[in-house]
Amino acid sequence: MASGLGVIGPYVLKEKLDVALYGAVYSAVHKDNPQTVAIKMQEKRLMTPELLQRTKNEYEIGKQLHHLNILSYYEFIETAEHLAIVMEYCTGGTLYNYIRTQPSHRLTEDEAKVFFAQLVDAVSYCHSKGCMHGDIKLNNVLLHNGATKLMDFNMSKASSFSGERSTFCGTPLYIAPELVLLKKYGGKGADVWSLGVCLFVMVTGQFPFEAIGVALSGEYTIPGHVSPDCANLLAGMLKVDPDERLSIHEIQAHPWLVRKAAAM
Fold first, then answer.
1. Same-domain check for residues 130 and 23
2. How far apart are CA 40 and CA 23, in angstroms?
3. Using alpha carbons only, what angle is made at residue 86 by residues 20 and 112, rounded to the nearest 5 degrees?
4. Which of 96-110, 158-172, 181-195: highest mean pLDDT?
5. Which pLDDT score is estimated for 183?
6. In CATH, what number is assigned to the domain containing residue 12?
7. What pLDDT score was predicted for residue 7?
8. Phi and psi torsions of 241, nearest 5°
9. Which of 88, 119, 171, 190 is the most buried (most CB within 10 A)?
10. CA dist., res. 78 & res. 40, Å (int)
């Protein structure tokens, strides 16, 4: 790397935005284009072959997904020392951090509906393209000009969903019970569970389950301020049995989201 923040390929690094696994995320500009991008850089010497492949997998899957509510992936750069993914630059930080800045660390249901509808649309699109995300969480959702941007596909699986998955992936407080039990599972249902956890945190400011083991019971407490429609939607998504969970299309057609669409 050059002095200061340095360069990677044709990009000049401007500001360190965040710490990433085995590296950092920077804002940057191309030497021939003033548009700001984000670059996630990772040090190869710190990574196992599996982690190197996950990074390449993230880019290969991300670059094939084109949706308003999915982060755009532009370019992959590999040097002797680094792997770098060049991505869309977002100005609003993560949805999780945004929620934490609100009164009571939660959103109003009206605001939650807007963000959640966008996130569900993004996941529905991923599933329509044969991709399960595998690590849906509020820290993997960025905000930019009022829109959500789903990111981080290094745990994702591209498949036709004709079979099942056995990989243990995701973030503990968001992962579905079938993963905890180390069962083979369908990727769509696991993503729906994680979406349910996201919605729960949006409208309550809390996680439904305080530990992985607690999720196996499927028992959680809904605060009194949550509307009956929203509580019903959460109940349909947070079913321990994946066969009983709502599908992504049933979520999109749920009265809680449909009323939002009609009111906007």
1. no
2. 7
3. 65
4. 96-110
5. 67
6. 3.30.200.20
7. 94
8. -80, 115
9. 190
10. 12
Clarify whether residues 206 and 129 are in a common domain.
Answer: yes
Residues 21 and 62 both lie in one domain: yes
Report whether pLDDT(179) > 90.
no
> Which tokens belong to 53?
């492949």
Residues 153 and 55 in one domain: no
Shared-domain flag, residues 75 and 118: no
Residue 132 burial (10 A CB sphere; 0-12, 13-18, 19+): buried
Buried-exposed string 198-211: b where 16+ CB fall within 10 A, e elsewhere:
bbbbbbbbebbbee
Whether residues 138 and 224 share a domain: the answer is: yes
CB 55 within 8 A of CB 83: yes
Question: What is the pLDDT confidence band of residue 19, given thresholds at 50, 70 and 90?
Answer: confident
Residues 235 and 162 both lie in one domain: yes
Could you tell me the pLDDT band of residue 157, with boundaries at 50, 70 and 90? low
Report the SS3 class of residue 98: helix
Q: Domains in the chain: how many in total?
A: 2
What's this model's pTM, rounded to 2 decimal places?
0.91
CB 5 within 8 A of CB 26: yes
Mean pLDDT of 189-203: 97
| Burial of 130: CB neighbours in 10 Å, binned 0-12, 13-18, 19+ | middle
Residues recognised as catalytic: 135
